[in-house]
Automatic annotation (TrEMBL):
The keyword Nuclease does not apply. It is an enzyme of class 5 (isomerase). The lineage of its organism: Bacteria, Bacillati, Actinomycetota, Actinomycetes, Pseudonocardiales. InterPro entries: Dimeric_a/b-barrel, Rham/fucose_mutarotase. This is L-rhamnose mutarotase. It comes from Saccharothrix longispora. The keyword Transcription does not apply. Transmembrane segments: none annotated.
């Protein structure tokens, strides 16, 4: 399993509405994400519109492809496009900027024979 961290930029004038939409995501969308292999998925939003997402998955490309194949994802992305004016097509699911992991506490503890945090 891999942990993935990504960033996006939300229109800073619409943060309250963005938060409200994510306070009660469609159950069909939640199930689609789970079934596509998105686990422990969280989003974190800064006041300037920086959005940071973290998830665990066996294969990010496969998880993205599985979501791309769903009707609920197409509807969700269409409804959310207005929050991402910097993306050419407004599709946040296609505009993820994946960040490189440069530190993992558990991996380094294990390498030194120490108990991990898990």
């Amino acid at each position: 399993m891999h942990r993935v961290c990504f960033t996006l930029r939300v229109d800073p004038t619409r943060l309250d509405e963005y938060r409200a939409r994510h306070a009660d995501v469609w159950p069909e969308m939640l199930v689609a994400l789970r079934d596509a292999g998105w686990r422990s998925y969280t989003l974190h939003l800064a006041e300037d519109g920086l959005l940071v997402g973290v998830l665990e998955t066996d294969d990010l490309a496969a998880a993205q492809a599985a979501m791309e194949a769903t009707d609920v994802n197409r509807r969700w992305q269409a409804g959310m496009a207005e929050f991402f004016p910097d993306l050419a097509d407004g599709r946040a699911d296609r505009g993820l900027r994946v960040l490189e992991e440069v530190f993992d506490l558990d991996a380094q503890l294990a390498r030194h024979g120490e108990a991990t945090t898990s």
